Amino acid sequence: MDAAFILNKVLPSLNEGLLVTLLLIIPSASLGLLLGTLVGLLRSFAPFWIAKLAAGYATMFRGTPLLVQLFILYFGLPNIGIYLQPYSAAVLGFTLCSGAYHSEYIRGALLSIKRGQILAAQSLGFSTAKTMLHIIVPQALRRALPGCGNELIYLIKYSSLAYIITCIELTGEGKILASRTFRFTEVFLLVGAYYLVLVSLATIGLQKLEKRLYVPGFGRG
Amino acid sequence: MRRGHKGLGTQGIRMHNNALLRVDGLSKELGGQHILKDVSLELGKGDLKVLIGPSGGGKSTLLQCINLLIFPDSGSIILGGREISFRRKKDVLAFRQQIGMIFQDFNLFDHLTALGNVQIALRKVKKLSTSEARKRAERELERVGLLSMAHLYPAELSGGQKQRVSIARALAMDPLLLLLDEPTSALDPELIGEVLAVIRDLGRQNITMLMATHQMGFARTLAKEILFMEQGRIVEQGIPSELLEAQRLSGRSRTLDFCSKISEIYGEDLA
Amino acid sequence: MLDSLLAIKEALPYILEGSAVTVGIVIGAMSLGLAIGVPMAVAQVYGNRMLRFLAGIYVWFFRGVPVLVLLFLFYFGLFNLMGLNMSAFSASVLVLGLRGVAYQSQIFRGAIQSLPQGQLKAARAIGMSDAKAITSIVLPQAMRLSIPGWSNEYSIVLKDSAIAFVLGTSEIMSRTHFVASRTYEQLALYITAGVIFFILTWVGIRLLQALEKRVSIPGYSPHA
């Protein structure tokens, strides 16, 4: 291990890549969660055909590899005249895929809310909107947190696939550097370390969040 | 359904005697079954009336129709002299605030403390300030003897305590009357007493109540009137002594038949 | 549109051959995962502190580093360093397998831990050694409980096998890419690839569900 090499050449490149990775993860995670919540709501409460459509979307994106989805968006869409930048294709792909998984957890959480909660809210004079906002969402959020949190961790790792559709992020920078210098082991051990840090930070953050929202006897047995 | 006289206040053209609540000809069909068939009843201010009868007889549906959790197919509901219209969502919501409901399964909001449960409607529906809501909530919890448990979550409370919190929650809204749907049926026997004690107390405070229950002893001693419901109709009604004592001349009443069965199943209850 | 369909028709045999490779990768990786994952789970539940610690590090590493990075690290880096001359196929199986160990060990660990304590106690009481107790009493039950989790893992490994494309393995993705860059029918072909993966996922899950039924014990529930 050559300390000089690492400090002068590897870290700067990787840091640039890290920035792109973060720029990929943050929008995708937020949009994916939003999309997932919407789809989860539709799958749980919408009229039959809309619910079926939403379920179809989720099945499709969960049943096929993310890589295939990215390829379709970046290499395939040009066939019908839609040209996406690597970054846009990546964010779109991550959002759609993530959203499908999130919708699964959200749907599970929504369906687990006992009907009696809604009856009680109605009997007190809560409107449908208020019931959703103050009774259903707070409970569903806690139930969905482990699953959705898990999905966010996956997103951090799978952001590496963006490199394959030429969006150069952390892994991409590593590959380029390693190919030039043939120092694959060192470079990729470092790249791995970067991801381990990101994932560990995210895991700790989620655990803290779960603790803060914890209500005795609720959700997690 | 009769057209409602909206917005006439208590000086409405129709003053339906002194009844606080009057239900006329309520009918409801669910899934092909006639759950309620032309049910009518009256509740005066301060009355405690009890609905009894076999499961599936329509007691629960009737109660849920009265506070519009379920919309009846026909009939009318008159509260405080005003007939309720189901047309506008706003009216329905306002109406529901005036009627409190206690459920068999308590239905406390699991993500809130006892205090939170009592407070939340005050803050979000009645729009009280946080401190006003909290003070009122604390008063109600004290009224049912649970102020010390204000910061516990439903999962940490016993069944009896949960039901008492739900009573506090309903009372905090200052309802005109209280509907109780088998409030002790889901409780272990030793916990029933504490809830009945609270309800008896409410009766002494002249809170108007319509209660569906299997607690015969309670009904006998405290109810102003007992209504026996079977297959969607009110089959017999009258004061407890009439219905529950054996008829001297014409043999036993249906109510009495049913009640003796109940007493066998549930054992002698606490009055 | 017609061109696309024709392109698909012509490419299909070639791509489907690749699915044999894909399935090979998946079976290889999952077998490896099973073979090492079960002992690792046992070590984590019954082993001493050192074993648990080492297993923990292993799981943390292989669950925290992305598949793509692992593939690059091992194929271009570590294997070269160790002088191993591995084919892309073997490397893919090995890497996905090692990663699978990390995930599968957690599935089995959870299953073992969900069994009531009494099972092991009873085995000891009739004079079984711990080793025998674990293999003949605990594991058969835990394995059955693990089938749903394993099913999920199958789905994930199948999808991850597409990433092995970057090493030049001749599976579905690489073949599709190959044909697509020649015929310029990328959209149609990648969609086809997606459909093939979807079918493989579906079939695999059904098979595992059938397996679950076959080995199920009537009325069995560890929490009865």
What does this protein look like?
The complex is a heterotrimer of chains A (221), B (271) and C (224). With 221 residues, chain A is mainly α. Chain A has a single domain (3-212), classed as Orthogonal Bundle (MetI-like fold), CATH 1.10.3720.10. Helix content of chain A is 80%, strand content 0%. In chain A, helix 1 (3-45) runs antiparallel to helix 2 (48-63) and helix 1 (3-45) packs antiparallel against helix 6. Chain B has 271 residues and is an alpha/beta fold. Chain B has helices at 59-66, 89-98, 114-124, 130-143, 159-171, 189-204, 216-222, 240-244, 254-266; strands spanning 19-30, 33-44, 48-52, 74-79, 82-83, 99-102, 177-181, 209-212, 225-230, 233-238. In chain B, a hairpin with a 2-residue loop joins strand 9 (225-230) and strand 10 (233-238). In chain B, helix 4 packs across helix 5 and helix 5 packs parallel to helix 6. By secondary structure, chain C is mostly helical. The longest helix of chain C has 45 residues, at 2-46. The relative contact order of chain C is 0.16. The interface between A and C is large, with 39 and 42 residues.
Low-confidence segments of chain C: none
**Shape field of chain A:** flat
The averaged pLDDT of chain A comes out at 91
Count of domains of chain A = 1
CATH top level of chain C?
Mainly Alpha
Sheet with most strands of chain C:
none
Low-confidence stretches of chain A: none
Question: What order do the helices and strands come in, and which of them pair?
Answer:
The complex is a heterotrimer of chains A (about 220), B (about 270) and C (about 220).
Chain A: H1 3-45, H2 48-63, H3 66-76, H4 86-111, H5 115-123, H6 128-158, H7 170-181, H8 184-212
Chain B: E1 19-30, E2 33-44, E3 48-52, H1 59-66, E4 74-79, E5 82-83, H2 89-98, E6 99-102, H3 114-124, H4 130-143, H5 159-171, E7 177-181, H6 189-204, E8 209-212, H7 216-222, E9 225-230, E10 233-238, H8 240-244, H9 254-266
Chain C: H1 2-46, H2 49-64, H3 67-81, H4 88-114, H5 118-125, H6 130-160, H7 172-183, H8 186-214
Helix pairs in contact in C: 1-2, 1-4, 1-6, 1-7, 1-8, 2-4, 3-4, 4-6, 5-6, 6-8, 7-8
